[in-house]
């Protein structure tokens, strides 16, 4: 696996740590940048706190965008993070503040937003299918972490080869088979509408494709990714999104 792939994967897998930020910036401070979308409905107020970059926060931003929900996007430099860290629950980012109440842990935030804005399923079966996708994604990322933590260079190369030649194709094949179970793969992972599962897979493939050569997407998965990025509200968000470091 190339150093560029490490650059992305450690950021994605190591939930919420400042080191993720360090690996994904060029080393200079960027300061706090606040982006507030404006809508007529000001309650509740959502504030998403993270570092500069996509990482664990981007699927949350994409979910807000898909829901058409305004939020404050607060981003910290590493220096600023150390100052505010003691005030943040579990001393981790991302963290979502909802009318002053803190919600830590990226997985909890994703699921909260999905339930709040109809980005989960319409029934228990569909909700479970969404959770299956989230769980499969976590399992895949654990394989990547085993590569990162391996110190022996020979073993590291073996893990690298296994990831690129086996794990990535297996992951894509699994997603393809799950997708085909709903509308023969011509729609979304669950039901007739976009869900957190679709948004998460788009985000993983999008961020990975910017730093590594991926195996070809199976046809149904390729179609899904195209549908998500062209989903009207997400397409609008992507058009306005600043170019973030990976």
Automatic annotation (TrEMBL):
<dbReference type="GO" id="GO:0005212">
    <property type="term" value="F:structural constituent of eye lens"/>
</dbReference>
<dbReference type="InterPro" id="IPR004045">
    <property type="entry name" value="Glutathione_S-Trfase_N"/>
</dbReference>
<keyword id="KW-0273">Eye lens protein</keyword>
<feature type="domain" description="GST C-terminal">
    <location>
        <begin position="123"/>
        <end position="246"/>
    </location>
</feature>
<protein>
    <recommendedName>
        <fullName>S-crystallin SL11</fullName>
    </recommendedName>
</protein>
<comment type="similarity">
    <text>Belongs to the GST superfamily.</text>
</comment>
<dbReference type="InterPro" id="IPR010987">
    <property type="entry name" value="Glutathione-S-Trfase_C-like"/>
</dbReference>
<dbReference type="InterPro" id="IPR036282">
    <property type="entry name" value="Glutathione-S-Trfase_C_sf"/>
</dbReference>
<dbReference type="InterPro" id="IPR004046">
    <property type="entry name" value="GST_C"/>
</dbReference>
<feature type="domain" description="GST N-terminal">
    <location>
        <begin position="44"/>
        <end position="121"/>
    </location>
</feature>
<dbReference type="Pfam" id="PF02798">
    <property type="entry name" value="GST_N"/>
</dbReference>
<dbReference type="Pfam" id="PF14497">
    <property type="entry name" value="GST_C_3"/>
</dbReference>
<dbReference type="InterPro" id="IPR050213">
    <property type="entry name" value="GST_superfamily"/>
</dbReference>
<dbReference type="GO" id="GO:0006749">
    <property type="term" value="P:glutathione metabolic process"/>
</dbReference>
<dbReference type="GO" id="GO:0004364">
    <property type="term" value="F:glutathione transferase activity"/>
</dbReference>
<dbReference type="InterPro" id="IPR036249">
    <property type="entry name" value="Thioredoxin-like_sf"/>
</dbReference>
<dbReference type="InterPro" id="IPR040079">
    <property type="entry name" value="Glutathione_S-Trfase"/>
</dbReference>
């Amino acid at each position: 696996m190339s150093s560029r792939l490490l650059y992305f994967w450690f950021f994605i897998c190591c939930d919420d740590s400042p080191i993720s930020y360090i690996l994904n910036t060029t080393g200079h401070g960027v300061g706090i940048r606040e982006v507030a979308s404006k809508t007529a409905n000001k309650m509740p107020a959502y504030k998403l706190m993270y570092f500069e970059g996509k990482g664990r926060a981007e699927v949350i931003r994409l979910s807000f965008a898909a829901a058409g929900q305004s939020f404050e996007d607060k981003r910290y430099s590493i220096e600023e993070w150390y100052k505010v860290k003691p005030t943040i629950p579990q001393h981790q980012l991302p963290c979502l503040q909802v009318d002053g109440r803190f919600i830590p842990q990226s997985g909890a935030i994703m699921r909260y937003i999905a339930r709040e804005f109809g980005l989960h399923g319409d029934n228990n079966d569909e909700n479970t299918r969404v959770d299956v996708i989230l769980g499969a994604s976590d399992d895949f990322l654990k394989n990547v972490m085993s590569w990162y933590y391996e110190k022996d260079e020979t073993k590291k190369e073996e893990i690298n080869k296994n990831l690129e030649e086996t794990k990535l194709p297996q992951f894509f094949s699994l997603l393809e088979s799950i997708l085909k179970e709903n509308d023969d793969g011509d729609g979304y992972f669950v039901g007739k509408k976009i869900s957190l599962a679709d948004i998460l897979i788009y985000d993983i493939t999008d961020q990975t494709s910017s730093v590594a050569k991926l195996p070809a997407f199976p046809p149904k998965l390729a179609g899904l990714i195209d549908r998500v990025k062209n989903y009207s509200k997400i397409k609008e968000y992507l058009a306005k999104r600043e170019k973030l470091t990976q």
